[in-house]
Amino acid sequence: MSRLIVSTFPNAKALPLWAGAAQGLFAARQLDLVIHETGSSREQRGLLASGEIHVVQAAIDNGLAMIKAGHDVVILMGGEGGMNDLVVQSDIGAIKDLAGRTLAVDSPDTAYALLLRKVLAANGLEKDKDYQLLAVGNGSKRLRALQKDATLAGAILNPPFSAEALLSGMHSLGRLDDLVGPYQAGGAFALRSYAEKSADAIEAYIQGYIASLDWLRQSENACERLLQEKLSISSEVAHATYLQLCDPVSGFAPQARLNWTGFRAMLDVRAATEGRDAQFEDTDTYVDESYYQRALANMARTTTSNHP
Q1: Interior CA angle at 144 toward 234 and 78, to 5°?
Q2: What letter does residue 147 receive in the DSSP assignment?
Q3: Tens-digit pLDDT string for the chain (308 aa)
Q4: Domain ranges for the chain
Q5: Rounded Cα–Cα distance for residues 65 and 122 (Å)
Q6: Going by C-beta distance under 8 Å and a sequence separation of 6 or more, which residues neighbour residue 193?
Q7: Long-range contacts of 143-150 (CB under 8 A, 24+ apart)
Q8: Is there a shared CATH topology between the 2-81+183-306 domain and the 85-180 domain?
Q9: Minimal CA–CA distance to 139: which of 114, 164, 120?
Q10: Structural element, H or E, at residue 76
Q11: Pairing mode, if any, of strands 2-8 and 31-37?
Q12: CB-side exposure of 128: number of CA atoms within 13 Å?
């Protein structure tokens, strides 16, 4: 059995990992899955670079940040478009009202912070001139920061923190998919050197993840209980969160497929906020779907052999 350490954020989008581990869907593929729950993307990137974790299942823009920093990272598959809302305090009525305010982010130079900057720029607001960003960490930390400090105007939040925030009286200025269009957010990436020497483990992981997605869509009650247990949330928040996760349009992508329209939008957001980088032009140099394609093909063959 191969040991694989996968890092994710301790939010609702970790549900396929939690469910797959609990249901034995990774173990059935001879994979000893160890789930690492990170406190920030900065920590996550450092651990991947050092080899202390093997795969990251999170915003793949963080993989691009690692490439920019000189690491040979390869993107393996998609996952979801972010399921993010621009959540603000009750006194904020529109995006223009964020002028002169501070917003909470994970890390100012990656993923959802870049999307936030794009949204604000489209509304005439310039970072450091018209508003400030405060790095506080993952979604849980961003929600707690908003609850503790009302001077923080808002944050990008995903399930379950978005559901909890809305139920507590904050409100959304819109889903990011609606504000900026399709976006490739979550996915899996690894160091190329590790993926090449551990191809079987990578493919087993992809198969287990896809099987977990199939299971959770058929297991509402069990998933809501698991969300309550893992995230210490109420049944009301768990139910709202589950519906977001399994939304056929904006939830988990079927079979964790990479959304190339969303991927190119992610590159455009990074270029608009961080400057265009020539090394990202040729996606074939850092996106390798061959592991995903082999995993999917082997799953199909197994299914066919079991159902003559």
Answers
A1: 75
A2: H
A3: 899 999 999 889 999 999 999 999 999 999 999 999 998 888 999 999 999 999 999 999 999 999 999 999 999 999 998 898 999 999 999 999 999 999 999 888 766 888 899 899 999 999 999 999 999 988 889 999 999 999 999 999 989 999 999 999 999 999 888 888 888 999 999 999 999 999 999 999 999 999 999 999 999 999 999 999 999 999 999 999 999 999 988 899 999 999 999 999 989 888 887 888 999 999 999 999 999 999 999 998 765 445 44
A4: 2-81+183-306, 85-180
A5: 23
A6: 72
A7: 145/104, 146/87, 146/89, 146/104, 146/170, 150/89
A8: yes
A9: 164
A10: strand 73-80
A11: parallel
A12: 2
Q: Checking phi first, is residue 123 left (phi over 0); if not, alpha (psi -120 to 50) or beta?
A: alpha
Q: Please list, in sequence order, all residues whose beta carbon lies within 8 angstroms of the beta carbon of residue 270, skipping any fewer than 6 positions away.
A: 61, 64, 114, 277, 280
Total H helices, total E strands in the chain = 13, 10
* SS3 at position 116: helix
pLDDT of residue 304: 47
d(CA 301, CA 230): 34
12: exposed, middle or buried (Cβ count in 10 Å: 0-12, 13-18, 19+): buried
Instruction: Name the residue among 17, 32, 18, 73 with its Cα closest to residue 200.
Output: 32
Residues whose CB is less than 8 angstroms from the CB of residue 257 and which lie 6 or more positions away in sequence, other chains included:
77, 78
What is the dotted CATH code of the domain comprising 2-81+183-306?
Answer: 3.40.190.10
Between the CA of residue 82 and those of 117, 130, 174, 292, 300, what are the distances in Å? 16, 26, 13, 20, 28
The answer to whether the CB of 155 falls within 8 A of the CB of 142 is: yes
Alpha carbons 84 and 184: distance in angstroms, whole number: 12
Range 85-180 classified under CATH 3.30.70.20: no
The residues that bridge with 33 in the sheet, in sequence order, are 4
DSSP code at position 37? E
Q: CA 124, 129, 131 angle in degrees (round to 5)?
A: 75
Place of tokens 């009301």: 236
